[in-house]
Every structure is written in structure tokens, then in C-alpha cells.
Amino acid sequence: MARHSTGRRPDCENRVPKRSHPVSQSLQSARRSGALGESYLKVRNETLALARGLSDADATVQSMEDASPAKWHLAHTTWFFETFLLETQLAGYQSFDPSFCYLFNSYYEQVGARHPRPRRGMLTRPSLEEVWTYREHVDGAMLRLLETEPAEDILNLVELGLNHEQQHQELLLTDILHLFAQNPLRPAFHSPEPLAVDEEGPAALSWKSFDAAMAEIGHEGEGFAFDCEGPRHDAIIRPFKLASRPVLNCEWLEFMADGGYRTPTLWLSDGWAIANERGWNAPFYWEDRAGEWQVMTLRGMQPVDPAAPVCHVSYFEADAFARWTDRRLPTEVEWEHAASLHKLQGNFADSGRLRPKPPVAGQGDDELLSLFGDVWEWTQSPYTAYPRFKASAGAVGEYNGKFMNGQYVLRGGSCVTPGGHVRATYRNFFQPDKRWQFSGLRLADDL
Amino acid sequence: MARHSTGRRPDCENRVPKRSHPVSQSLQSARRSGALGESYLKVRNETLALARGLSDADATVQSMEDASPAKWHLAHTTWFFETFLLETQLAGYQSFDPSFCYLFNSYYEQVGARHPRPRRGMLTRPSLEEVWTYREHVDGAMLRLLETEPAEDILNLVELGLNHEQQHQELLLTDILHLFAQNPLRPAFHSPEPLAVDEEGPAALSWKSFDAAMAEIGHEGEGFAFDCEGPRHDAIIRPFKLASRPVLNCEWLEFMADGGYRTPTLWLSDGWAIANERGWNAPFYWEDRAGEWQVMTLRGMQPVDPAAPVCHVSYFEADAFARWTDRRLPTEVEWEHAASLHKLQGNFADSGRLRPKPPVAGQGDDELLSLFGDVWEWTQSPYTAYPRFKASAGAVGEYNGKFMNGQYVLRGGSCVTPGGHVRATYRNFFQPDKRWQFSGLRLADDL
Amino acid sequence: MARHSTGRRPDCENRVPKRSHPVSQSLQSARRSGALGESYLKVRNETLALARGLSDADATVQSMEDASPAKWHLAHTTWFFETFLLETQLAGYQSFDPSFCYLFNSYYEQVGARHPRPRRGMLTRPSLEEVWTYREHVDGAMLRLLETEPAEDILNLVELGLNHEQQHQELLLTDILHLFAQNPLRPAFHSPEPLAVDEEGPAALSWKSFDAAMAEIGHEGEGFAFDCEGPRHDAIIRPFKLASRPVLNCEWLEFMADGGYRTPTLWLSDGWAIANERGWNAPFYWEDRAGEWQVMTLRGMQPVDPAAPVCHVSYFEADAFARWTDRRLPTEVEWEHAASLHKLQGNFADSGRLRPKPPVAGQGDDELLSLFGDVWEWTQSPYTAYPRFKASAGAVGEYNGKFMNGQYVLRGGSCVTPGGHVRATYRNFFQPDKRWQFSGLRLADDL
Amino acid sequence: MARHSTGRRPDCENRVPKRSHPVSQSLQSARRSGALGESYLKVRNETLALARGLSDADATVQSMEDASPAKWHLAHTTWFFETFLLETQLAGYQSFDPSFCYLFNSYYEQVGARHPRPRRGMLTRPSLEEVWTYREHVDGAMLRLLETEPAEDILNLVELGLNHEQQHQELLLTDILHLFAQNPLRPAFHSPEPLAVDEEGPAALSWKSFDAAMAEIGHEGEGFAFDCEGPRHDAIIRPFKLASRPVLNCEWLEFMADGGYRTPTLWLSDGWAIANERGWNAPFYWEDRAGEWQVMTLRGMQPVDPAAPVCHVSYFEADAFARWTDRRLPTEVEWEHAASLHKLQGNFADSGRLRPKPPVAGQGDDELLSLFGDVWEWTQSPYTAYPRFKASAGAVGEYNGKFMNGQYVLRGGSCVTPGGHVRATYRNFFQPDKRWQFSGLRLADDL
Fold first, then answer.
1. H or E, element range at D296
2. Which of residues 126-145 of C touch D (CB under 8 A)?
3. For the domain that residue B245 is a member of, what is the CATH number?
4. Smallest Cα distance from C10 to chain D, Å
5. Of A398, C51, D72, D265, whose CA is between 20 and 30 Å from D102?
6. Nearest residue on chain D to C97, alpha-carbon basis
7. pLDDT digit string, tens, across residues C32-80
8. How far is A345 from chain D (nearest CA, A)?
């Protein structure tokens, strides 16, 4: 019932310690500072390009607790730069609107109180227009900050902020899809035009084998990575094989036809309970329209493409499917071991397709097709800390570590992940019942 | 969890039987037809004036299940004319958009399936702009229909549609207030300017006595009334007295200070349970700001005016307050008996105040101040059918009768009721726990 | 989730003021005192006879929030005498166990805190055996109290306590039926033996007409009545007719066959929502067993008897049925007006049948068959205060008044009501969605 | 609301395939058969001894969905033998009551439909007495079966059944404690007598270090183990240290005093949400009684013993505590590595203490005190399948594998675990919010 919010506006100071930096900055820092300035503009403009077609209303409504309004994504990513950088690092910075600290904090306890997540859709003010102005205000200040050639740790925060923004670019798309799927009109985010179903049949399934090994996984060294991707550490590889491509819609249809959604012994106990409670009988967004399976996409309702990777399935479904085939999901160690030498290319958001693409043999650099892009691939690994993992100090340490419970790792990125955002060590994570992300699966098995 | 709607669009035909009318229309009908055309434009334009300041987002979000988005109100009232009049009565009428039949039906089972009430806020499309166009489309057609000088029953439906629209004008205001109260920024719907607290003290309380009588209540004869206002019938009046004005905020503050919200013996059992569960300790929209009670209004946060009628209290609170004073709420029979000879004037929405006004002795025509307007007055009468009540035939018969359960009658209109909409026989009704309407109370007692 | 109770044991003193009585008691009081002693033993022993067959476990489990464990009924009715009489009126009375004041208070706020209603089934201790001992302890003391020939107001409280106990006798039966119906074994409370279905067909339906009148309803004068049965007052009778018998199962089966449970226009809006949410498609306790309708009864699963009154229907169902027949439910005024001269006999609990009996023409004293007993008859009247009703002073004033919200009045008693408990003015009341009571209906209509 | 169960009684045949065994049984099998007969009687009698003091009501009520009634535990363990052994392996076996197959199946989908878990407490019939008779019936038959010197796979099932029964012995105690804690009388399951608080102060904390190693963990070879304890496999040990004893109540009190329950940065995000929602401010069963912390135990309310291991804390609390100390929980690999050479002794249920005992230096065989018994120790390891784990074939394969989601591993057994039941490889598992088990923690850290 109507528990109206209290209007309490917290004092948002003291969120990160003011730091003093050594006066002389290295040349390297200057170069990096310049490069980051370019990246900054590029990433921020990509967000603009993405959200440009949304109306004020499209950008304001929250379709479920898991999702956020597009406007909130636009403002929160901006708040990140303002809060963690401008307010402490840019002398004389004037905050755009002090109330935004409360409105657009996501979950940083150390920054202070925040607007409750399930009520993000109540904010018809500020308008989308005002949020664009907020972004311009912060962008101007950020560029001024970068011109000061700030210290490494500041530049690291900028880089974190840009990767953070890219994550929200993907979420903006998954959340808009969810919102539009709630509308009986099933509006399209982009025109459906370039998505003719491929004429070739689905790619054949083969397996790539891997020998026993002591491998190393996790991030180390140069290049950006989130804290949870490290420390790099040894891991035992037991002989296994990995499917040459993700599971396809045509295979999923067989699973359905064989009673996959009605056979309790295929399912984890929790999954079976949820599948029944929620009446699952097909992947999320699938609709049976007069006997034809269609699927709600960012390009409106479309026929299900049998040759494309199955998408919008939960971990519980992926796990049940794997059991049905008498195979299993890979561990994240196995996945990363297989991916570590793989070329980092695939169908990402910058292709503009915004739907998973049927894998075609011969397109990749070896026999693992669609390893990156298309659909996030569920692994059987719970999202836990790597050995000797320590969360970063300060509020940004809340970024990943506190979510290490009840979630599973997904790997490889999807067709709505910004190009260049993921890498072999990248760990995405969601609860096993979530289906609104672009999540699919690739089979593995013991050798 | 995300149960996305099925996209099923019902066949909306057959909703009301096509009727054939006699060719010759009486002069009286022509006159009435003309008058209704004027009323039509007036009422429809008042809606426009009311909602003009809302953004696309303001008009789209649904703040709770009880409330509807402004855009939905604008479209639903239009749907009413299109569905019950144009589609069956205007030859060659072209429906604006066939999907609107599903989207904007409120609760008319006989018209067909409809978009679920709790999901009205998911409709970011059609946009507010498109809804304005929808209204223009229907307005043009309605004026054409009225020019055909249609039969009495058609004119009756037009009149019903206009009164229906006025009800939604009030709901649009109560729902926007609720939405804006969810926003930590507490935006104002109208500027706060003309609402200085009156300097005179609160109006003194006196009582007006009524003798035993056999009275008649209910609507009969000329002029519009909703079906539930009749049939007119005898009712026993037992000697009673009625307070000269509604209960004021200053009196409510005394109730609070005396532990009114913490004393179970003052409350109905259901009310006590709900008051505790929801943490009630003051009227809805009141906030304690550093020791000062403020209240969210259509003009933003304002100090509570001690001399104004208390507003936004539930039946449970009103009943507890009356018990605290050792008085009682009036029955609807008593209220109507007292009001039947009273001048129909007061602080309605057309005053532009949009807040209850302190009653001032001598302003009314007799000693019952603020009987109409300011705040709806809870009566102790459950909303039931009058003797020999029959709901109208067809879908419009669902208007009132099927809601005759679990609600109490309120009388007199409020400061957000359109001027000219209510009358002495008018029965408003809400569940006893509802607080977002402009509801207050007036005390009564036995003699 | 596991919110364990706090173990707080309230101070149970001060619950009713100690009163001093005049020394000399009238002879009348002595006589009444003696008569009440006999009644006391009779009623208390009837409870014993009723519950004798229950095991410790049967008597302990709570099958839903609306129901209470048999043990709780046994203890609470005893607590009533202990709390409202012995502790203040019997010099030197030693409380059986001070913790029982907390455990067995139902809803008397003025007596103090109490064990939460939904957790009554957690009390495996005290055992059923201990509760029987508790009853003996209190019975002994009560008889000693009655020997002191106490004052009228004390005797009134004893009488209230006995009527209270009878109400709980009925509830004990309805609650045991509900409990046993949860058990897949469907155990029988009593042997099924005497319940052969009658061979004669169902009694024909006729109507009894009543003229317009100014009637009096409500209790006044001698004999016990609950406070809510008064004050006696005038009421307008409009010409109406009343069915000669309750609605029968054979008629209900027609309603079902005609889609009664699938036709929204027959239902109140709230009722339709609940019927769908809970999947109602037949009266409560009915089960389709291989095409035959059976019903869970206090004598185990039995075939539905077409000639018997329908039982275990909610107000919502009764109202929908009446609308299906194009009739209506009677008001409580009409019911009482018709019943006021009727012989107070029928199939009550003391018949031992414990199921509604098919009405047989000629058995009653006039043409209203089964008016008393068999099934409680829903009226269309919300349970409200009669004009000038004042609840009794002190804690017993919480008995009825505070429940006057959201309930409807039922009249006439049922086959599980103790013989001699009801009368023409008796008002039972339940929420419109409740079905576990022995509730049916009788049709009425305007003349 | 009252959704009464359907009374459907499934066909319980075909639950396990009838197997034919070779006629000649090895001598080894005969010996094992005899030994198992003795074990059978011993374990079954221990259950009897445990539950002997419970009343019919104590044994029937279900205090929450996570817990089961004692009667259900007694019947379900018996059902296990009847279903998986007698009905298919003992020629001419007469089932005790065919309805028990439905009533007492826990979660074996392959055996058929079952009484819903949350409604186990509705079964007041069969009575406790009848369940004891059921046990005798099955015990007689089981001994006859064992006299036939059945094949290995049958004997394995008997052994599984006995270990299964021991698990339910522990659950019976945890569930009775929970039930008694719901009763404001806080009854004691056993007399409080032998539990004087130790006079010596709490054991000092020291650390035992472990070098890097390639270790083996998991069960292999002789002796019973559950399927999830294997296969035995390599695991990398990184240098770490383990606390010499579990965390004690005195340390937990410091955590509380330091605001541990009010500091979000100590908590996992899910844990913080749950801790707030449920109002956690101390371990489960702790009550502040006039400023003294007491705890509900199987021996009634007792003062919290500062020197004893903290008990009834969730994973979320254990994890927050570890973060507060800047240490961490051990992984299950580390725990098992440390425990593998440790003497398997400790304070188990057969000590009769039924409460955790303060660890005393010098009592163990090395510096890891209370490693077994006292309290289950949360590890940081999600409960997942070991490499190459395959669930057993048939219905018993549902024993463990399908629960491998959303739970954490606990190790070492508790003061209510039957003596001889656990071992170093034993994996217990519960969801991270559960607190009614005897769960505590031991700190670890990296070296």
C-alpha cells in the first residue's frame, strides 16, 4: 500500500575522502589522460545515440523491480562521475542539483541514503530533457578534470566509470525490451528491417576437446578489468569438451516438444518450483501466436529463428536443458580456459542487429562459434570471490563483492553488449531465475 | 515476477446492441441535443485545461494500483464516448485505433477483455500527444453525432459520459497528487501562490438539530443523476444534530496529541489492524518536518492549516475520531436530509484553490458551513442498493451496482470536484482504508 | 518467516473494575442464580460431550487463520469466566495459571496483550488434558460464585459467558470440519451412519408475501440477547415475498451447469475477483470424485444430497445465485419481520445430524420451512449498528461493536448451532468471502 | 486462503524397479547383513528414545514451512524403508496403509505425488500412536528382509536408509526446538539440570597454519558416504590458517556491541536486506530479558554462555562477522583438508547435552578444538557438484543433487547430530538465511 517516501534528503558529502596528489604528473599519465578524454566522449555519445529515440514516458517507467527506467540509467551513470570524481577532484565544481545524490545513487551505502530501487519509476521529474542537461553539465566538467592530467587513481576511476556506463548501456536495452514487452502494442525499439531469417539451416554441432592441465585464469596486468576478475590464479583443468556453438532455438523446440518443461527430474528443485509457480513453458518473450512461436525483440514481435542461439532462458532452464541432453554446463574455469586464446569478436551491440545471429561455420577463427557476443552463456559456477580477492577500498568497493551470493557466472557478452566491453576474463552474474537478460547456453561434458 | 501480458486483443464488437430510432425527433430533443453539445465542449475542454501542464511522463506513470495515469483518464473517458456512442450510433464512424478498446476499457465485462488495472502504467505508447489526437478525433465525431439530434436514450448516454468525465477529472487530480507525493522532490502541480493561511482563527463549532420525521431521500425526476442515487424512497429520521462545519486540522491535532492513533478502543477492529500495519500516525500526506506538520498538496508541500477541514483521512480514522469525541458519523440519510434544502455552493475545483478552505461563519446560507465542496464527508452508511434499485441494462449497468460491497458512502464533493458535478443526492463511495481522495468528516449525534 | 514470539507476558490485572455490591440480594436474583447454575453445568457439559472424541493433536492444530484449535476454544471460553467473573468477583479465587491470561485472550484490548491469532496452533502445551483440568478448576469456582447469589450485573455476565460458550461450540465444529478437510484421509468427526439421503424429491418452492408495514425489529425486554440485537426500533417494510425454503443443492447444480461461476455479470466486482483468484467452481468442501459431487462433512465424505439446502457458500456466491434467478437476498429487516412470529424450531446441533436436512413440506408451523437451523441464511444487510446502539461498558463492550465493518448479517442458525441458542433477533455476521461456516441462502423479491 | 487439498491418492507403485538378485549370496554379504540388522535396531531405537517424551500434539504441529512435525519425521523415515526396500524386495510384504505413500513422501518426484510440504502439520491423523505401530510393522519386515541376506545394492539402500534416519533425528530436534520456541511458555524438551555455565573463562584463540599443497578431498573407498561427498578429487590448497576453535558467544556480543547488525558495509547485499526485513539484532533464539541475554534451548530458556560457541547464526551473519574481524570463512576444501587427519570426536547428540559446549584447550588431539560436534561450521563454499559427480540412478538419486543451488556447505556436525553420523568428508548444506539449525562458524585467513 501507498507508503509514500519521506522526502528525507541525506547529506551527500564525505562520500569519498579528498585526496592530495603529487604535483608532478608523469608524461604517461598525460597521455592516458588524453586517451581517456576521447574514450569518455565516445562512450557518453554512444549512450546518447542509444537512448535518442525514447520518449519522456519511455524513459521514465519502471517495468519491474529488476529493471530501471532509461532515464535513471542516464542519470545514474552521470551521478557516478559527479560523485566519485567531480565533487572531490575538480576544484570549484558546482553540483548540478544536490537532490540528485539521493535520487540516483544505486546501492552505495557509503555514499548515503538513496531512493528505493522499486520506486525508481515514480520519478516523472526531473524530465528526460533535464537529465540530458545534467549529462552535459557533468560532461563539461569531466573534460575539464581530464585536462588537469590527474593522478593514476583518478584516471582509474574514470575508466571504471566508463565501463560502468557501458554496463548500463546494455541494461538500458534489456530494460527497454522488458518495458515494451509489457505493452499489448508490443512497440519496436528499432525497425525490424534487417533481420530476415537466414536461409541456411542451423550450424551443425561439434565438440572441441581440452586436455587436463593446470591453467591460470583471471585478470592480471595491463588493461582495464573489474576487481572481481582477479586475482589471477591457478586452476585445475580436467579433460573436457565444449560445444562448437551455443544451443539453438531449434534444439530448444525439441526440448519443449519432449516435455522438458513438464519433467521434474530434469530440474533443480528450486527451478522446478519456480517454473511451475510462474508457468514457464518456453523461453521468456516467446508467445504462441496461432500456433507459431514468435518472440518479442528490440525490433518488435518476430518469428523465432530456429537457427539462432536460444536467448532469454534462466539458469534453471539452461541447467535442465543440459541434463536433458545428458551433458552439463561448463564451469567458468573451463569457459575462460577455452576462450583465453580466442579472437575477441562477435555480434555485439555495435552491429546494430540487437538480436542473436545464427552461427555460421567458418566465420570464427576456430571451431568455437559465437563464443563472444550473441548471448551470455550461463556457466555452472556460482559467482564467488577468487582466492585472495579483496574488494577495492571506499565506496567503489561495493561494486561487485557484496553481490557474491546466490548468483551464477555468465560469460562472453551478448548482442546488446557494447563492442569492446567484454574480454575472456569478464564475469557477468545473475540470479538463476532471471530471464530478461540476453542469456543462453553452450554445452560441455567430461572427457 | 514478470508475467508479461499476452497481447491478446479482443474482438470489441457487440458491446451494445445497435438500436433503431424513430425518424422524427421532438423539438425538445433538438434543444437538449444542442445544449448537450455545448456541455460536451465545456466539459471536454475543462479536462484539457486541467491536464495541460503535465508532461508525457507525468501523464504515463501509475503510482499505485488504486490510481490511474492521467493519460489513461484522458483516453478512457474518450473511449467511453467512442464505445458506447460512436461505434453503434454514428453511421460510418471510423474507430481511431482498434487496440484502444482493449487498452482503455476500465471494468466493463460486457465490452470485453481489457488491459489489467495494475498495469496501466506500463503504456508508454500511445504517447500523451497521440491521446490528445484521439480526443480530438472523438470530439469531432461526437459533435457530428449530436448534430443528428439523436433520441433520448442516446442523449442520456452522452450526459452519462459527461458526468463520467467529470468524475475522472477529480480522479486525475487525486492521482496526480499521489504520484507527485511519491517523488522525493515533491513537485507542485500548481503554483503555491494564493494559499496564504487565513489569519482569523478556526470557525467555532455549533450544532444544527433535526426533528424526527419520515423523509424522502434519493433522486427522482428531472436532471441527471447516477442510477445508484435512486429510486427515491421513504426513510425514517430519528432526532439528531449535525455539526455546523467539518472537523478541522486543529481538532485532528488534538486527537493525535491525545494518543488517538495509539488507542485501540477507539478503533474498529479492522481499522486498528490496518493503522498498525501501515504505521498511520497522522492524515495521509502529512509529514513532520523538523517538528512542523506539513502536507503534500497540489501546490506542493505546505504547512498544515489549523483552521481548514482535515483531509485525506480514511473512514477508519474518521470513525475513530468520532468515537474519541463521543459523537458519531452521520448516516447518509441524515446527511441528505440536512442537505436537501441547502444551497449547492462551496469550494469546488473551479475555484482553482485545489485545497480545502477554512470555513468562515456567515458565508453560507445557513449554519451548515462547507457542506458542499472542500472535503468529501464520510458517512457511517455502507454503500448499498436503495430499495428496488435495478442497475441499468447493458454494459453501463456495470457502472455502480457491482461495486456495492465493502465501501462507505461519502457526500458533498470536495475542492477537486468539478463545479456543478455534485448534488444533495450524490453518493460517492470508497473502501474504508482509502486515504488518497479528498476525504474528511462532519460529526453528528443522537438527540 | 520464522518470527519467533517474544515471550512477553503482560500484566493481566486491571481488566475489569472490582465492584462492590449491595449486601441484600433479592429473591429473584437467588432464583436466577440457581437457574443459571443449572444452565452453567448444562452448557459446559455440552462442550465436553462435543469435544470428547478429539485427540490431543486434533484439538491443537490450527488449520487456517480464521479457525482456532478446539483446545483454544475450550480454554478461551473458560478464560472468559475466569477473567470477567472469578478474578474480580470471587473472593480468594486462585488463578489456574497466570500465563493463560495471555494465551487465551481472543481480542479484548482492554484485558491486555494476547497470543497472536494466527499462532494459536503453536500451543502444543498446555495439553488437552491440562485444559480439561483448567475447565474443572474454573467450573468449581463458578459454581461457588453462583452460590453467593451475586448481583444482577454479575448474573448477566454469567449469561453472556454461556451464550459466548455456545458460539464457540459452533465454531469448534466448523473449525474441526475445516481441519479434517485438510487431511487427505478426510477423517470423520462422527460416524456417517444416520445420514441416508432422503428418498422423497426436493421440496417444491413457493413464496410467502408480506405487506407494506411499519414494523419493529431488534431485541427488547426479557431474555438474553447480545448487545448488537438492540435497541429495538421502527423499520419500514416494503411489500416483499420470501421463499418457502432455502436454496437447495439441486438448484445450485443448475446454477453451476448454467455457467454461474464463469459469468462475471452475475457477480459483485469483489466477488468475481476472489472467485477467480481462488478458483471457485462449486460450494466449499465439494469435490468432484470421478464425476460425482461429494462433500466433506462432519461425517466424512458424503454424496451431495440434491434435496438438502446448499451449504458452505459465501455471500458473494449467494448474491450471484440470487442475481442469476433475477431475485435478491432478503434484508435482515425483512428476515426478522418474517421470522418474528415463527416457531423457533429446526435442525440444530442437538439433533446430532450435523448436516443440513432436506426441508419437507408440512413439518413446520407455516410455509417457511427450515427458517431456523440447517443453514445460516445470508441477508443483503451489512452488519451495522442499530440506531442509538451503544456498546456495553468495559472490555465486554468489545464483543460486537468493533466488528461492524465489512461483514454481512446471517440469520436463523444452522445444524451446528446449539439448540436454544438463536432467536428471531439473532444477528450472526461474517465477511462476504467466508465459506467455512454452515452458510446458505433463501431468496426474496419485491412485490 | 483455505485451498483444501484434493484428496487425490496417487498410485504408488512403479516407484523402483523390481530387481532379481543372484541366488547365492557371498559370506561377506551375510556378515554385512547381520551387522546391518544390529545397526538397524540401534538407529531405530535411538529415534524412539529421542521422541518418547513428545505428546501427540507436540509431534503433530508444524511450526514453519522449513520444519516438519516430529510425527512426520518418524513416519517419513519409515516410509523410506517401506518404499525403497520392502515393497520391491520383500516377497509378500503387506503395506501398512496405502495412503502413507502419499502422506509421507518428502520430495521424491519419481515415487509420485505427495502431501504438500507446508501442510504437513495438518495431519492430526494418523495419530502418534498409529505411527509408532507403523514403525513396528516396518521394523519387523525389515528384519525379515535382512535375514534373507540380500544383495549388496539392497544392503546399500538399507545403509542409506539408516543414515537418512539419523539426519532426521537431528532435524527432529531442531524442529522441536523451533516449535517450542513459538510457545510463549517456552517449554523445555529436556530438563535443564546438567548445564551449569562453566567457570573457566573462554578458550583463547590461536591459529593453525597450513602450507600450499595439492590435496585430495571427497569420499572414496570403504564406509558409507552420501553420493555428494564424492568423487574424491584433487584440490589446490593455498597457504592458509584456521582458528583453533569456533567463534564464541562472548565474541559475538562484541560484534553486536560494535554495531555489527547495523553496519551495511559488513554484509552481503542480500544478507543486509534480509537482516533488516526480519529485524535481526542477535542470533536466533536469543531474547533480551530485562537486560540479560537468554537463549531458547532444548532445555528451555537459559542464560547465554559467553564461553560457548555461538549457535543459530545464518551464513549471512557468519560472513558479516568474519568481515568485521577482517578474516574470512574457510572454504570447504580447506576445512576438509584440516579435518582429514583429525580425531572424529566431539560433543554430539549422544552426550545428551544438546547444547554447544565451551571448548577447553587440551581436550582434543591437537589445536583444532570442537572441530566436530557442537556447531555446524559455515564454509564460504556454495553447495555444488564435485567434478564428475553423477547422482545415483532412480528415485534415491533425488537425495542430494537436485538441491545444488543457493545453499552453502556446513561441516563437522553439531551437538544434536547423532554420534557416529558425520565424518571429515560430510557435507551439510542450508540456504544462507537459515538460522534454526545448530550453525556457527570458525574463522580462517590467507597466509
1. strand D292-297
2. 126-128
3. 3.90.1580.10
4. 11
5. C51
6. D185
7. 889 999 999 999 999 999 999 999 999 999 999 999 999 999 999 999 9
8. 31
User: What residue in A sits closest to D382 (Cα-Cα)?
Assistant: A382
Domain co-membership, D285 together with D386: yes
Residue B17 lies in a domain: no
* ipTM over the 0.85 cut-off: yes
> Which candidate from D110, D270, D384 shows the least CB-CB separation from A405?
D270
Contact (CB<8Å) D446/A388: yes
Count the residues in chain D: 447
Q: How far is B280 from chain C (nearest CA, A)?
A: 19
Q: Give the three-class secondary structure for A405.
A: coil
pLDDT digits over C308-364, tens only? 999 999 999 999 999 999 999 999 999 999 999 899 999 999 999 999 999 987 654
Nearest residue of chain B to residue A181 (CA atoms) = B4
Contact criterion met (CB below 8 Å) for B377 and B442 = yes
Does the pLDDT of residue B208 top 70, yes or no? yes
Q: Do C116 and C224 belong together in one domain? A: no
B311/B251 Cα distance (integer angstroms): 12
Convert the pLDDT of each residue in A171-198 to its tens digit: 999 999 999 999 999 999 998 775 655 5
Burial of A262: CB neighbours in 10 Å, binned 0-12, 13-18, 19+ = exposed
| Segments forming the whole domain that contains residue C132 | 27-182
Work out how many domains chain D is built from and give that number.
2
In a domain, B357, yes or no: yes
End-to-end CA, chain C: 55
- SS3 assignment, position C160: helix
Residues of C whose CB is below 8 A from B381: 384
Query: Which stretch of DSSP H or E encloses residue C130?
Result: helix C128-147
State residue A394's pLDDT score: 81
Residues D218 and D365 in one domain: yes
Beta bridge partners of B241: B209, B445
- Calculate the alpha carbon distances from B427 to B157, B388, B430, D325 in Å: 19, 17, 10, 65
Q: Do B315 and B428 meet the contact criterion of CB atoms below 8 Å apart?
A: no
| In-domain check, residue B197 | no
Q: What is the pLDDT of residues B328-364, one digit of tens each?
A: 999 999 999 999 989 999 999 999 999 999 998 765 4
Q: Do chains D and B touch (3 or more CB pairs under 8 A)?
A: no
Who among C55, C122, C178 is closest to D127 (CB)?
A: C55
Residues of B with CB below 8 A from C269's CB?
107, 402-403, 405
Grid coordinates given for B188: 507542485
Q: How many Å lie between the alpha carbon of D189 and the closest alpha carbon of chain C? A: 12
Contacts of A269 in chain D (CB under 8 A): 107, 402-403, 405
Cβ contact, residue pair C125, D182, below 8 Å: no
Closest residue to B268, CB basis, from C269, C405, C446: C405
Which chain C residue has its CA at the smallest distance from D184's CA? C7
Domain boundary among C133, C166, C182: C182
| A100 touches B at CB < 8 Å | no
pLDDT of A63 > 80? The answer is yes
D226 and D174 share one domain = no
Give the containing element (helix H, strand E) for C262.
none
A78-136 pLDDT per residue, tens: 999 999 999 999 999 999 999 999 999 988 888 888 999 999 999 999 999 999 999 99
Q: Which of residues 144-203 of A touch B (CB under 8 A)?
A: 178-187
> What's the predicted TM-score (pTM) here?
0.93
Give C415's pLDDT tier (boundaries 50, 70, 90): very high
Residue D373 inside a domain? The answer is: yes
Distance separating alpha carbons of residues A133 and D388, to the nearest angstrom: 56
